[in-house]
Amino acid sequence: NTRRRMAAIILSTSRLFSASWSSLSRRTLVTTASRCTEAQARAQFYTDEHKELQRSLKKLIDSEINPYVDQWEKEGQFPAHQVFKKLGQAGFLGVTKPEEYGGLGLDHSYSVAMSETLGTINCGAVPMAVAVQTDMATPALARFGSHYVKEQFLAPSISGDKVSCLGVSEPSAGSDVANIKTTAKRQGDDYIINGQKMWITNAYQADWMCLLANTSQGQAHRNKSLICVPMDSPGIHLTKKIDKMGMLSSDTAQIFLEDVRVPVENLIGEEGMGFTYQMLQFQEERLAGAVMTLSPMQTCIQSTIEYTRERKAFGQPLLNNQCIHFRLAELETEVECLRALIYRATDLYVAGDDVTKLASMCKLKAGRLGREVTDSCLQFWGGMGFTNEVLVSRFYRDLRLVSIGGGTDEVMLAIICKLMGTLPQLPMKK
Q1: Which of the two residues, 39 and 263, has the higher pLDDT score?
Q2: Annotated catalytic residue within 52, 73, 170, 285
Q3: What is the model's pLDDT at position 322?
Q4: pLDDT bucket at 20, cuts 50 / 70 / 90
Q5: Is the CB of residue 375 less than 8 Å from the CB of residue 382?
């Protein structure tokens, strides 16, 4: 069963990294959530089982990822298949996915615990690429896909044998998902796909794409479908890698699809339900994007404390200046407030609630706070902060994307306003 499988993975991971994991019983994992009252959850969100999972992942990160991040950043790409295979072998690519296809079948709080630990990677690009696989390209596949597409695309993605990408954004449709132009017209037992996708993470290394396309001429919210598209299909063309200001070790590209033929059986769920499925995926995507900013921000604050304590100006440590230690106190307070909001949204999501509003708030706050924390900390580093030799400058560049990717701050505000009942109603077109 799921819990015994998790225990087996824990033991195999401990052998891999010479770490001792305590065995976890099925009874412990099943009853942990039910024992926790809401008050207890606020006081201590992660159980011992969550923490064991995080410790195991942290050991993998420290031994297999962080030592090579600087090199990957210079090269402009990290070896996704190599990294994903190690994560998959250790069970981290299918924490919430069905056991039948190699996952652990745990609730979403374990995915949040994993994503928070991914934030300890010394760049934003690798955690983002992993999140594409776990929280963007596969949630709808796991929930609504047929047995066939789960065997073909979900199972190898969980094991790390395949790398995925998400094909939603287009040159004329970023946050405006309903405005995508890519079409998938049925011809016999196939879809013929034409269009283009933009800002595609993992593009050059992906084996398959979770593609959103218009499969009919109906209303914008009811004419779209999600389709699993092998990236080696004839008619798929990638442009050169997009030169970005941050997320340097992530391969990002524009993709053109010209008469790409894909079997109809590669459809995820029902035809015409793609927009709805994608909106549901956004809840997990935005929670993952938000929680992964916590560790980088904490790293910026802590490293700035250490630097300003050692760096002296006018005969005393910089940290002695009230404007610095007060500002760092404000920033840490804000980070803890964001953490509490993310944990609350996760608790409600695990309980089965629609957390679109709270997830949007989490992402909005994470994006804005990421800019605020990194900018303030960089200022206190002075000239060193303007170099590429310190992590604060890398996070300054990488975290800027959080306010843009996966829905801009302005879109998050519109969603929140809509759910508050304060968004103005546009006049109906005649």
Answers
A1: 263
A2: 285
A3: 97
A4: very low
A5: no
